[in-house]
Amino acid sequence: MVVIKPKISTYFSLSLVVVFLIAGLVFILRDFAYKGSFGLWFYLVACTIITVVLLMLLVKMLAGFRFISAGKDKIEVRLPLRGYKKVYHVKDILAWEEETITANKKEFRQVTVAFSDQQSISISNHEHESYNGFVEYLKKKAARKKVKNKKA
User: So where does this one cross the membrane (predicted)?
Assistant: First the structure.
C-alpha cells in the first residue's frame, strides 16, 4: 500500500515564511501606532501586500494538506481540515496525467487524477512523500486511463 502525505520539510519552511510575514506585519503596525516614521500611504500599501501574501500562503498550505492511500484497487483521499474522506475504486478513475517541468536544473513533477464524481486530486513530487510509488501504482492499475501527451 502506498501512503502519500505532505512532506514535513516543505510545511516547516512555509511555516517559517508565515512567521516572518506575521512578524513583519506586527512590526509595521507597531511602528505606525507608536512612531509614524513613514507616510500613511506606505503603511496602507505595505500592510495590504503582506496580508495578501500571507493569506495566499496559508490557503495554499491548508488546501495542500491531504493524505492519500493507494492499494488493493482503491484510492482513499483524506482531507483532515475539511473532515472529508472518500474511497475511490480504480474503475472510478476517468483519467490521470503526469506533467514534468524542468526549471533551474530541477525536475518538478505533478500527477492529476480525475474521478467519476467530478472530483480530482493533484500531487507533486516536491510537496508529497511517496510520489513515485503512487505514479507506479497508477501505471500498473490504470494504465489505459493515462492521458497521452501531444507534442506541438
Answer: 12-29, 41-59
